[in-house]
Each structure stands twice: as structure tokens, then as C-alpha cells.
Amino acid sequence: xxxxxxxxxGGAACAALALGGxxxxxxxxxxxxxxxxxxxxxxxxxxxxxxxxxxxxxxxLESLIRGTVIHFDYNEDLLTPESRDRLxxxxxxxxxxxxxxxKISGNCDERGTEEYNIALGQRRADVARKYLxxxxxxxxxxxxxxxxxxxxxxxxHDENAxxxxxxxxxxx
Length: 172
Known about the structure:
single chain, about 170 residues, alpha+beta, CATH 3.30.1330.60, four-stranded mixed beta sheet, 5 helices, 4 strands, globular
């Protein structure tokens, strides 16, 4: 029986050498397959687009509109030649920007009743609107409002302040 044990032990050793390889045998290279590609990760949502900065032309248009101010004589709603020139220049620009919109604010000096000044301020805004429309500006591009004496440009109480406050302001 001992012979059998020796054979079995010897046979096991040979099998181990055969499987493990002998030191003097050539190594065989085993090609390794690349690891599987990682699972696709969910795409990150695209960043929100930033609000577009106003174009230079848009900024220039706004500056021109805000920079337009016309003045009136005491207790008048008639356009002066200088006011007509300013409105003509403004109309040329607005006609080229069909999507633009303006608001004309009629203002008065502090003299007179509140009701009178609201009415006079509205007449002043309306006369400027009517002139712009006569120059080809679409009437739907123009809104008017009267502030009467509520929004003075100059808080003073003299002729210079009153002259500054008898005006139409323009906003985009």
C-alpha cells in the first residue's frame, strides 16, 4: 500500500509541475483582453446660456433716447425749432429700429395747480408724439405719460429751475 501512496504523491507532484510549469520551460505569453469600457455616465446637463449682453447698437439707441430732452416755454405746449430738430434726429433712429419702444414723459414747473399741470404735461407729451408720428414713426412704438410737477429735473424755485422742469423726457 505504501507503494500506492508514493505513486499517488509522486503523481500529484508531477501534475502540479505540469500545471504550474517547470522552471526551465519557456514562458508563454497570455494576451490579456482589455478591461471592459466603463459604463457610460449620464451626460451632465448643458450649462444655462448666459443672458445675452445688450448689443452696442442697442446701448447706443437707449443712450440716444434717454439723452433726448425737449423744453417748452412757460404755459406752452408748442415745439420750438430746437425741439423739432432733436425729434427729427430721434425719429430717424427709431424708424431704423422697428422693435424699439419709447415713452415720452411730459413735465411742468411747480407753478399752477396739480390738475392743470397734469393736463399741460400730457399735452406736451402728446405734441412730441404727434410730431414723431408725422415723421414716420409707428404710433404703436410710442407711449405718453404726464407727471405734471411731480418729477422736477431741478428742485430749485427760480426761473432757471422752472425752465429746466418744463420739458419732455424720453425713455426706452
